[in-house]
Write a structure and sequence with these properties.
about 30% strand; 5 helices; Muramoyl-pentapeptide Carboxypeptidase, domain 1; about 20% helix; 5-stranded mixed sheet; about 230 residues; 4-stranded mixed sheet; alpha+beta; Lipoprotein-anchoring transpeptidase ErfK/SrfK; L,D-transpeptidase catalytic domain-like
């Protein structure tokens, strides 16, 4: 460790000094609310893998937790937000890509209702992987609008884009990408670990900003999966 410029010799660190090495940083056990160099490294590696699109600020915040959930689900780990040896290993040796529609086109969006994951492919490479919350499967009535909270399964294309915040009869939506009728992929402030929407596909705000940059009108959207059971 370099302690100061121009010192020709190594000094023993005083009691309580930060002696964390890069190896230590990459094996730290982390949880939401933690701060420091280990979290910074975690965020950077998540970003490099396409999971994290927020600020790399060394704070294990909600957007970081969403990225960890996505990584854990992609690697068949329990999505609990806890960072330990399994998560660090997944970042170093990720599970191989398992596209649902390998012949669906070089540029596409895949939505996995079973695992509650969204993956964006560009040139047949996954460039964004995000946790989502899809339709709750529960009938609803809100502001005079009633229906079944079901996310449709099938092959679609993005038909319309709505930038920024918009407010519909069922609530606010951010950077909406409509792919069938009034059903859209959109950012939301509430993206729980279970299906909770009225039928749209919710994703974290940071991921929705990047998604909106990547996906345009006419891009293919494939929705697959059975009714989600946690």
């Amino acid at each position: 460790m370099v302690l100061a410029c121009g010192l020709p010799f190594l000094m023993s660190a005083p009691a309580g000094a930060d002696t964390e090495t890069e190896t230590d940083t990459a094996t730290a056990v982390l949880k939401p609310g933690d701060r420091g160099a280990s979290v910074t490294l975690l965020q950077q590696r998540l970003h490099d893998r396409g999971y994290y699109h927020g600020k790399i600020n060394g704070v294990y915040d909600e957007q970081t937790m969403f990225a960890i959930w996505a990584l854990q689900k992609s690697n068949r780990l329990r999505p609990n937000g806890a960072v330990g040896p399994e998560v660090w290993k997944a970042l170093e040796e990720p599970a191989g890509d398992r596209p649902m529609v390998p012949n669906g086109g070089a540029n596409r969006v895949e939505i996995d209702l079973r695992d509650q994951l969204l993956t964006v492919y560009r040139h047949n490479r996954p460039v964004l992987v995000s946790h989502i919350s899809s339709g709750s499967q529960v009938p609803y009535c809100l502001n005079g609008h009633c229906g079944n909270a079901i996310t449709p399964v099938g092959d679609f294309r993005v038909t319309r884009r709505a930038p920024g915040w918009t407010t519909g009869p069922l609530g606010p939506m951010y950077n909406s990408l409509y792919f069938v009728g009034g059903v859209a992929i959109h950012g939301a402030t509430r993206v729980p670990a279970w299906p909770a929407s009225h039928g749209c596909v919710r994703l974290p705000l940071a991921a929705s900003k990047r998604l909106y940059e990547l996906v345009g009108v006419g891009d293919r959207v494939y929705v697959r999966g059975k009714i989600y059971k946690p």
